[in-house]
Amino acid sequence: MKKNIIILTFLFAVLLSCRQSQTSTQVPSINIMAYYVPAENYMPDQLPLHQLTHIIFSFTHVIDGKMQFRNPAKSDSILQLLVDQREKYPNLKVMVACGGWTAGGFSDMALTDSSRTRFAKSVTEFIERFELDGLDMDWEYPGMGVAGIKYREEDKQNFTLTMKCLREHLDQIERKQTLTFASAGWQRYYDFIELNEVMKYVDYMNIMTYDQISYTSPFTGHHTCQGYIGWNDIEETPFGKYMMSRKEEWEKRGINWHPRSVEHIVDFCIEQGVKPEQLVTGAAFYGRSWKGVEPENNGLYQPVGGSHIGWCAYREIREKYEAKNGYERFWDSTAKAPYLYNKTDSIFFTYDDTVSVRLKAEYAMEKNLGGIMFWELGNDTKEPQSLLNSIYQTVAR
């Protein structure tokens, strides 16, 4: 009997230790923010929330001038389940994002004092209902119609006024609120917002340093690279020659295009006066691919002879493509980014892997940035060596 008690006590201790190791945790030295789109096979109680400081439920939309879910019957219960996870993870901040690519309604909502106030009141009601910790505004983009949404020249000033109105209303909520907005990772975007004015009212700017090369691009390139790329790094490539041929025309139109990267846009924002601790840079938990790509330079910066295949979740890249099935992994030491190329099928992949996201996290710490975020949690592998785990182990050590 005594022996059985000893064995049971030992087993209980082992189980308790395992439980503590799974949920325990070191506090990250910078913020780790995850955008999260609910999926049936990845509900809030299944998420690795112990490795996050913030999780941003995506998306609500601007509907009839208010912030609402398109399908509240489905989304309300999932958001509530996510909020309930704070009982296990009391330091976790649960936020909600409003907008997203092709999501409209913003320009009309931001047009007048009364329309902005109407929206801000709906936000506070929404947040108080679910006891959330903040809002991420994902207006893509003020003053520009690149996503096919309605826009106005006045969006530039009205975006500032909207964020000011939101800050004033959120500050009235007893629970402390975090206000962020998603910005583009390319320089021209900042011509269409009053950057330093907006930053007075927000905690962080989440820079979407992904999709840095469009699916319509006639050339391959990195869609989410970290390292600073200069003109001299690409000028002898087909991509570089093409961009150089358009440079004079762009300059006449007041467009100052530069090869895109995390380091370039962070330097730019800091030069404009933004505090480093307000900047949160982005990682991509997905890749983009093209076919019909010639083998020179293993497909990098080469003409696209076929179509853009589309985006692909990292979990699928890990399972099917990363250094397997004819795909070879390459590393660009200048861009600090990986890519894949299949010589047989002439297919090129640009993506983030565990090495590149670790470098992004290290850079954020070195520059004293506000943190690192990513789109989106459900695209990660559920294997132990996931992208999120690579980030977490870097910033929590």
TrEMBL record:
It catalyses: Random endo-hydrolysis of N-acetyl-beta-D-glucosaminide (1->4)-beta-linkages in chitin and chitodextrins. It is an enzyme of class 3 (hydrolase). Residues 30-397 form the GH18 domain. Its EC number is 3.2.1.14. One of its GO terms (biological process) is chitin catabolic process. InterPro entries: Chitinase_II/V-like_cat (IPR011583), Chitinase_insertion_sf (IPR029070), GH (IPR017853), Glyco_hydro18_cat (IPR001223), Glyco_hydro_18_chit_AS (IPR001579), Glycosyl_Hydrlase_18 (IPR050314). Keywords: Carbohydrate metabolism, Chitin degradation, Glycosidase, Hydrolase, Polysaccharide degradation, Signal. GO terms for molecular function: chitin binding; endochitinase activity. It comes from the Bacteria. Residues 1-23 form the signal peptide. Belongs to the glycosyl hydrolase 18 family. This is chitinase. It comes from Saccharicrinis carchari.
